[in-house]
Each structure stands twice: as structure tokens, then as C-alpha cells.
Design goal:
Blueprint: H1 12-35, H2 41-64, H3 73-79, H4 84-91, E1 94-95, E2 112-114, E3 119-121, E4 133-139, E5 163-169, E6 174-175, H5 187-196
Antiparallel strand pairs: 1-2, 2-3, 3-4, 4-5, 5-6
């Protein structure tokens, strides 16, 4: 004789109660997770994309001018009459015009816009002989967002910045310095790298 177990499935009210408890727990923990993550996933993705875009542009220029093993690559290229800003813009899929002024652009008068809506500035035409690097600034989401720089006093865990820095070394490397190792506040940039498991 076959015996059937008398087990019952969850009733509809039990399912609804369980879902309610899970939903309540999620509502309690999601704000904590967001608060402990000062840079959103979208900003992390865009910042990584900006770094890669800049590195690819510099590598492309280096290949075009057949520069190999030069510790002063960008400085020497600039001294030979190459407009660094125009060269970078030509490799970065810009839209609209490129700043042709002799001074590097500013937030209100950027050097150029790229097709992905990012805004770039602080890129000189000519490399300063006294500098080993330049700190380019990029607004990751264009005119939208908070339009706050990472080292702005108003930037915080709740008031997230969307304007990040990328350092270009004279030998063509694109880096994000460690906090405290150089001038400027790179806290948000390094938090991004730390959460992505990327090292300098």
C-alpha cells in the first residue's frame, strides 16, 4: 500500500508575509550599502572608461609618431611643435570644436567634448618644461549631475562628485596617484580604484 506524505506547501498569506519581511530587510540595508559606496557604479564605469580612453589616445599618438622608450615622450613631442590638445582630441572621438587657445581649458570653457557626453579640460597645447605631469579633468556625465569636483569641499558621501582627475605623466603613462603621495586630493579617485581592485 502506498502512503502519501501529508506535507503542505506555503499558503498565499505565508508567501506574502515572507516577501514583506524580505522587502523590509532590503529597504533597511540598501541605504547603508549606498552610503558606504560614495561613487556610484555608473560613475565607476565612466571613470574607468575615461582613463582607458585617455591611455588609448596617448598610445595611438605614440605609435603615430614612432616614439619608443622615451622618459620625456610628451614633453619632447610638444617641443617638436606638436599641439598635444589637438592630437588628443583627434584620437578621442570629439564632437564640436576643440579649444584653440594657448591656455588650457577650464570648466566653463572646456578643451573639448567627446561623443560619450564627457567634457574634458586642463589639457595644454604645449607641455610645460618644468612639469613632469598634467592633471586633466573630466566631467563624466557632461552638464548633468552635481558638477562637483572630487576635491571640492561640497563633495561628500551623500553629495557625490562627477568631475574626476586623470594624471598624464611626461613619459605617456596615465596614472591615478596614491593618496598623500602627491599634491591634490585623490581620495575619490583612489576609492574607485580600490573598489575595482586596480593598482597603480
Amino acid at each position: 500500500m502506498i502512503k502519501y506524505s501529508n506535507k503542505k506547501a506555503m499558503t498565499m498569506p505565508e508567501v506574502l508575509i515572507a516577501l514583506g519581511v524580505i522587502g523590509t530587510l532590503m529597504m533597511m540595508f540598501i541605504p547603508v550599502i549606498i552610503k558606504n559606496n560614495p561613487i556610484s557604479n555608473q560613475e565607476k564605469f565612466l571613470y574607468k572608461k575615461a582613463i582607458n580612453t585617455m591611455q588609448n589616445a596617448i598610445s595611438s599618438i605614440m605609435n603615430e609618431y614612432e616614439v619608443v622608450n622615451s622618459s620625456n615622450y610628451l614633453k619632447e613631442l610638444s617641443q617638436s611643435g606638436v599641439d598635444l590638445r589637438a592630437e588628443l582630441a583627434s584620437k578621442m572621438k570629439t564632437r564640436g570644436s576643440v579649444n584653440t587657445g594657448t591656455s588650457a581649458g577650464t570648466a566653463s570653457n572646456p578643451d573639448f567634448y567627446t561623443e560619450d557626453q564627457m567634457i574634458w579640460w586642463n589639457i595644454p597645447q604645449t607641455w610645460d618644461d618644468n612639469k613632469d605631469y598634467i592633471d586633466v579633468k573630466v566631467d563624466l556625465n557632461g552638464t548633468g549631475g552635481n558638477n562637483l569636483e572630487t576635491d571640492d569641499e561640497a563633495a561628500s558621501e551623500t553629495n557625490k562628485p562627477d568631475i574626476f582627475k586623470i594624471r598624464i605623466m611626461k613619459d605617456g603613462r596615465v596614472v591615478v596617484p596614491e593618496i598623500g603621495s602627491t599634491e591634490g586630493d585623490w581620495t575619490f579617485e583612489m576609492k574607485y580604484l580600490t573598489t575595482q581592485g586596480v593598482t597603480k
